[in-house]
Every structure is written in C-alpha cells, then in structure tokens.
Write a structure and sequence with these properties.
Shape: globular
Helix content: 40-55%
Largest sheet: 6 strands, mixed
Strand order of the largest sheet: 7-6-8-12-15-16
Radius of gyration: 22 Å
Number of strands: 16
Length: 408
C-alpha cells in the first residue's frame, strides 16, 4: 500500500498558551499557530484522563482546540504526525474530535514521536516485512492475564505458528527477553503486566516470571534491538516521567533508544477483551500490507464500532481452541455481554454453567453468585434484549494505544 503523506504537528506548551508548528513537504517553512490553552488547564485534563475520571466531552472542551488545525492542514487519509510537549504526552490527542464531530483517528492515521528528530533516526532503519515474532505472555501466576494467551494464539494464526515463538509464565525470563530483542525478531509482543515507577522512572517496565523481577527501561537502554515493532500490550506501558527540558524518561523512549523502529504502548490501564480484539485486528492489518499507523487506525475504529452481537461472535470463535481457565474466562465474557444487552435469561444461563465447574476459586464462585442474583432480579422486572449497542464506544476501550515512531 502507498505510504500516506505525513503532516507534522509539533506542540510547545507555555503557561498561558500552546504553540503548534505545522510542517508539510510543500511548505517552505513551518506555520506557527497559537492556541489559547495553557499548562495548568492541560495538566488538569491530563491528570483526569490518565486516572479515568475525564469524560470525553470534558477532555474535548479543554483540549479540542489543539487538534482543530488538523482539518485545515491535512487531508483525510494523510498521516498525522504528532509531537507532544510537556503534559501533552499524556493526553490521547488522536481521540479528540475535529470540527465536524469526527475523532481525529477516524479521519487520519496517527503516529507520535517524543521529538521531531526521532523520526529521522527510526526511519533510517528501513521498512522491513514483519515475518517473525516473539511473544512474552502472562508472566505471573499470581496476577493472571488470561487474554494474553488469546493474543499469543492470534499472532500464531495470523503470522504462522512456525514464525511465532511464545514464552509464558516462568518462561518469561530476563535471558529470554534479551535473546528475543537482539535475535532478529521483527515483532516483540509483550502481554504482561506493566508497572510505572514514579520515584525511579527508569525502573518502569513489565513483570518477568520470577517475582519481584521486572524488565525495565534501563534494561532496554543497555541493548541493541533489531525489532521493527515492539508492542507493549500491558497496563500503562506508555506512561512516562517528564523532567525540565521535556526529557521523557520511560519505556517508550528507552525502546526507541535501543534500536526499535516503532513502539505500540498504552496510556492507561487497558480492558482485556477490547485489547485482545484490537491486537488481532492490528496484526491482521499488518499481514494484509497496511502500514502500522493505518493498521492501528482501522483496529481502533473496528473496536469502537463493534456491537455486543459482534463481540460475542468473536468470543465464540475462540471457544473451540481453549480449555481450562481461559475457556471459563471466555464464557464469562460472553455472559457479561449478554447482561449488557439486557438479555438477562441468557446471561443467567451462562453464569450458572460457569458456577457448576468444580475447580473454580472461592472468589470466582462469589462473583458468579452475585451476577446470578443480579440476573434474577432483572428478569423479574423484565426487558427487551438489544445486541446492537456498542460496548467499546467509549475512548477508554479503543483509544489507549498509541504508535510511537515509524508509521510504515
């Protein structure tokens, strides 16, 4: 597929306003725009966005003006290259609406970089086919991420089982991660818990299989990675610490520094079901020849627009391949979606089936008992099932992931 035309929007935040520098190949010099939104307002919006308290309308009211110039300077389909500054590193600019009410990523594929100069560095490594992947999944038995296994299987199905090396549980060791990063894999996919250390940002990373070990930003800077794409499908993997001078210290910059051309990271703690669907669609897009930014754009919009019926159909396709705890998790997801569709009788049947399993934990049994009680009460009230609702329409579900680096 043709490489989309890039249009650069570089931001500079001050106490009283924000400057936007617009760059495009046909411009002799950047255009400079002044947006009357200052650091204090943006800091409050960023704080609320990252802890889940910000409503879309509220975030739009404070930050919408920052992306308004996109409609004037970029055509639909152009690659919008965002270079945030200061607190803007923590705001999902791609999820904000343009003047026509469409969110930015619905009109344009988007990528980010921590600085404009970084793009020259990462693009110099070339645009290589994504043929071989290494996966690190569900590293901690005490903090299970059962949908991580679903992501591993999706990669194997899409890229080919022989081309995907998977490390799970205690097999997610420091040696295994170093070997994957430096051994020539095109894709490194990490589906483990992420952790952000505000006191020591270079200690931020993801959890390895042996507690309390973690693979950190500092570890990445000591390596020379050959990966074209590193995916951190984990909680708060993109959150970074900002020092004066906008020195961004965190996993994203560390991974780019290690040699990776692109990083896909999350700005906040993610929902497992929507993330699983997004990752499958993203990788399918890459295999189909879409660039990384376009593949992410289409995956995000697909997740946003999925109906409850479509989510259940997706979960049903996973059932024949799974057993044990993962099968129960998928059954719980289906029952939960039926409940959200107000099909309380179907949801009750699903919860009852799960409660009949002998080896579930006490906590699982208690949760199922509470869910069955809610269903019985709702059945007495009565309702008409509606599977057309979009359970992931809120940006919380489809917008946490950002592509940083080479968009190709």
């Amino acid at each position: 597929m043709a490489d989309p035309r890039p249009v650069l929007f570089e931001y500079w935040v001050t106490d009283r306003f924000t400057l936007v520098f617009v760059g495009r190949a046909d411009l002799a010099e950047p255009e400079v725009l002044r947006i009357p939104v200052g650091r204090a307002e943006l800091a409050e919006a960023a704080s609320r966005a990252l802890d889940g308290r910000a409503q879309p309308a509220e975030l739009q009211g404070v930050c919408g003006a920052l992306v308004a110039p996109v409609a004037e300077w970029a055509n639909p389909g152009d690659l919008v290259w965002l270079v945030p500054h200061d607190v803007l590193h923590q705001i999902p600019l791609h999820a904000l609406e343009l003047a026509d009410g469409q969110v930015l990523t619905a009109c344009n594929p988007v990528c980010y970089t921590p600085s404009a100069s970084v793009m020259t560095y990462v693009r110099s490594r070339g645009n290589v086919p994504l043929r071989r992947a290494v996966v690190y999944a569900d590293s901690r038995a005490d903090q299970p991420l059962l949908h991580a296994e679903v992501q591993s299987l999706a990669l194997q199905q899409i890229i080919g089982e022989q081309s995907v090396e998977v490390h799970r549980g205690s097999g997610v060791t420091r040696a295994a991660v170093v070997k994957g990063l430096t051994g020539g894999a095109d894709i490194i996919h990490v589906a483990c818990h992420g952790i952000f250390d505000s006191a020591q940002p270079t200690r931020s990373g993801f959890l390895l299989g042996q507690p309390p070990e973690r693979f950190t930003a500092e570890d990445f800077t000591r390596l020379r990675s050959q990966a074209s794409l590193v995916v951190l499908s984990a909680c708060e993997s993109g959150v970074s610490y900002r020092r004066p001078g906008d020195e961004l210290i965190g996993l994203t910059r560390a991974i780019l520094y290690s040699g990776a051309a692109s990083v896909l990271v999350s700005l906040w703690s993610v929902d497992e079901v929507s993330t699983s669907i997004l990752m499958r669609r993203f990788y399918q897009g890459l295999v189909d020849g879409e660039g990384k930014a376009v593949a992410l754009q289409r995956a995000q919009l697909a997740v946003r627009d999925m109906t409850l019926a479509e989510v259940i159909a997706y979960c049903e396709t996973l059932r024949p391949e799974r057993d044990g705890p993962t099968l129960r998790l998928i059954g719980l997801d289906i029952a939960d979606m039926a409940y959200r569709a107000r099909d309380f009788a179907t949801a009750l049947t699903g919860y009852q089936r799960l409660a009949a399993v002998q080896d579930i934990t006490t906590a699982e049994r208690a949760g199922l008992a509470a869910a069955m009680t809610r269903c019985r009460r709702a059945i007495r009230v009565g309702s008409v099932p509606d599977y057309s609702a979009r359970p992931f329409a809120d940006p919380y579900y489809w917008a946490p992931f950002v592509l940083v680096g080479d968009w190709r």
